[in-house]
Write a structure and sequence with these properties.
Helix content: 40-55%
Order of helices and strands: HEHHEHEHEHHHHHHEEHEEEH
Strand content: 5-15%
Largest sheet: 3 strands, antiparallel
Number of helices: 13
Distance between the termini: 128 Å
Structural class: mainly alpha
Oligomer: single chain
Strand order of the largest sheet: 7-8-9
Shape: elongated
Length: 483
């Protein structure tokens, strides 16, 4: 009996020991779990060691695990598993949005998760200015490192709509280019339907061609319709357009501006786009016009104007318009006064700068220690003499020669009466923004057949005599619309 009691006692003690051990394990497990939970919570909400704002891209198709792994690799979080557990605990695993996000310095895992699931991504976009050529657009897209891939299909000139286009990180350059082309197709269709039906246009492509010339001729929005009207008036009179931007495009094929006015040799150069040499519109656009230029070309201003010339050396100041050659000559004389004033101001600034430099040098040689620290005067930068549309500042050209000549010295009141003798240069490559009536290919009657002035390079005649007849008379220009 005693042995039986002892056996039962040992069994009870063994059971109690097992229960105690299990309870101990449970308690220890709870303590460990609680400790891990506290550690995880502390880590999840604690500030990160990052000392500067950073950006992070949620790529298309990323899930919570992929995002957590990349965050850890970039050193933005300490433990991807804690980040994932926190995301599932807060039910944020389905809220990730593709895009680029700005993460603040010291942002916690919670802050990062909230940013990636609740904030708007940084807007990524590219802006294409009006008047960019296709080549310039492609160059700009190739320079954006947040776009991927190569341009596989180059669209034709004039087929892209200038605008601002948003894109997601990793988007392909070709996809953005395709969107530009689709936008132009849609916009052109609407504008073509609402065009002035009396215009001598036979296709939307011709409308784009005219709009591209208008776009390149003026940066002033209010002048687009007036300039379009001038060109349509000239076409109606079988006058050549004689637009400098078309000459440039024929030479560069849209690679970009030359930074100067065309030279006499370039004006004489035979290209399909040189509207000093060809009748009517060129064979295609010379740039990608914006919506407003398209609207201006589709509904030009009604006027009798056949000429325009820049008001000043600043293209944004616009142009003077004239319906006849005599009034045009007066407008050119006004520009000559402005050019002379600017030239005098530039010369004075150069002289002052030279004097300041001599004074500084002499002060330094005399032992004046302050000469080394005194501010140095510099000459005022002279305006670009040839680069900007609507800025006719280069020498005029003798209509009877292939050489550049100095501009007239008479003022606005005497330009048509007297003129000084020009000094002639024989270099055919000197930029020659000549007056429209003196460009190559003029007919013998400037009052009815002289071309419109180019917004970029129109100049004044250098003598008071009527413009001489060209050495090779030609027949009146023919309208080649639709031909």
């Amino acid at each position: 009996m005693a042995d039986r009691r002892q056996t039962k006692t040992r069994q009870r003690r063994g059971f109690v020991d097992v229960v105690n051990a299990l309870l101990t394990l449970v308690v220890l497990g709870l303590l460990v779990a609680g400790g891990l939970a506290l550690y995880g919570a502390h880590t999840f909400y604690a500030a990160s060691p990052t000392s500067a704002d950073t950006t992070f891209v949620v790529e298309k198709g990323n899930n919570l695990g992929a995002v957590a792994e990349r965050l850890e690799q970039k050193g933005l979080i300490d433990n991807r598993y804690i980040f994932q557990i926190g995301g599932y605990a807060l039910k944020k695993q389905g809220g990730l949005k593709t895009g680029e996000y700005k993460l603040a310095a010291g942002a916690s895992m919670f802050d990062i998760l909230k940013t990636l699931t609740e904030s708007k991504p940084i807007s990524l976009s590219v802006t294409i200015p009006e008047g960019f050529t296709v080549a310039q657009v492609i160059d700009k897209l190739n320079g954006i490192d947040k776009l991927t891939g190569d341009i596989t299909v180059q669209p034709p000139e004039g087929s892209l709509m200038p605008d601002t286009y948003d894109f997601d990180p990793g988007a392909t350059r070709q996809s953005v280019l395709d969107r530009m082309e689709a936008a132009m197709t849609a916009k052109l269709g609407d504008i073509w339907q609402g065009r002035d039906q009396s215009l001598p246009l036979t296709s939307p492509e011709q409308l784009v061609t005219m709009a591209s010339i208008v776009e390149k001729e003026t940066p002033v929005p209010g002048e687009r319709a007036k300039i379009a009207g001038v060109y349509y008036n000239r076409l109606a009179k079988h006058m050549r357009l004689q637009s400098d931007p078309t000459v440039v495009y024929g030479i560069t094929k849209g690679a970009g501006p030359t930074g100067r006015a065309p030279t006499r040799a370039e004006l004489d150069q035979q290209t399909p786009y040189n509207t000093y040499q060809v009748d009517g519109l060129p064979p295609g656009p010379i740039a990608n016009p914006g919506a407003e230029a398209l609207k201006a070309a589709a509904n030009p201003a009604k006027s009798l104007d056949l000429y325009f010339v820049a008001v000043s050396l600043n293209p944004k100041d616009g142009h003077y318009f004239a319906a006849n050659y005599a009034d045009h000559r007066k407008n050119v004389a006004k520009l000559r006064v402005v050019e002379k004033q600017q030239a005098a101001a530039d010369a004075e600034a150069d002289a002052d700068a030279a004097k300041d430099q001599l004074e500084e040098q002499q002060a330094a040689e005399s032992g004046d220690a302050t000469a080394a620290t005194a501010p140095t005067a510099t000459a005022a930068a002279s305006p670009d003499q040839t680069a900007t549309p609507g800025t006719p500042t280069a020498p005029a050209t003798d209509p009877g020669t292939d050489a550049a000549v100095a501009p007239a010295t008479t003022d606005a009141a005497t330009t048509d009466a007297t003129a000084s003798t020009p000094s002639v240069s024989t270099d055919p490559n000197v930029p020659v923004p000549m007056p429209a009536d003196e460009r190559p290919g003029d007919t013998a009657q400037p009052a009815t057949t002289a071309p419109a002035t180019d917004a970029a390079t129109t100049d004044t005649p250098t003598t008071d005599k009527p413009a001489p007849k060209p050495t090779k008379p030609r027949t009146p220009a023919r309208d080649t619309f639709g031909g």
